[in-house]
Design goal:
The protein is mostly helical. 68% of the residues lie in helices and 0% in strands. α1 runs antiparallel to α2 and α6 crosses α10. The protein binds protoporphyrin IX containing FE (HEM).
Amino acid sequence: MPGAARIGEVITLGIETARADPSLRLLLRAATQEVHDRLHRHAGFAAIQDATIQSADYQRLLARLYGFYLPFEAAAGIGAERSTWLAADLAALGAPRPLAALPRCPHLPWLASAHSRLGARYVVEGSALGGRELARSLDRLLGTDAMAGRRFFVGRGSGTGEAWRDYLAQLSAAPPEPAARAEIISGAVATFAAFEDWLDGWSSLPNG
Ligand code: HEM
């Protein structure tokens, strides 16, 4: 997890670049590239990707994701889709712990403005692009094409590209002023940081 000083540096870089470069999507990508790359190496996501994840670890990862998305969806003002998909996956896998007993992320990003919430959505909408890839790598664990247990990673399935394009259209419609862009970028950076920090503790969870 990058420290507060590092997050500050990334935001400053984003603000400086925002003044010079018109493409907000590229700015978001540049400001979050490092954390995105680190998440590829997260032991849970990496084990899904190379199809070596075991059932107990998969349930731990889903439980940790549930503990993030449930409060995050409320904070970001988005529907409770992802937490519902995660709950369905945990139930399908027979996870032993009730959802109410799962730990929830206590350090969510501060998303007080519509701009910061738009930036936060970059993280969740973008993660669906990688999620679609990961869903395909779950065949060994879940059985070919079985939906049970992979609802979250499948996400919107064939509608993923369209949802992403809708989101990019909202980004393009955001005001071009540097202050608005900086708020959007810091919403995304803070969301990635909170997500990475919370996911760090995934393997210490009891199974399910
Ligand atoms: C092993 C795990 C992951 C893999 C393999 C992966 C893979 C990918 C791929 C292939 C894309 C580009 C898709 C395209 O251009 O069509 C992408 C984009 C993206 N992913 Fe991931 N991802 C992973 C984890 C995550 C996580 C955990 C998050 C956030 C919580 C995330 C956030 C994003 C974002 C924001 C984008 C959009 C980047 C852009 O502006 O183009 N990814 N990912």
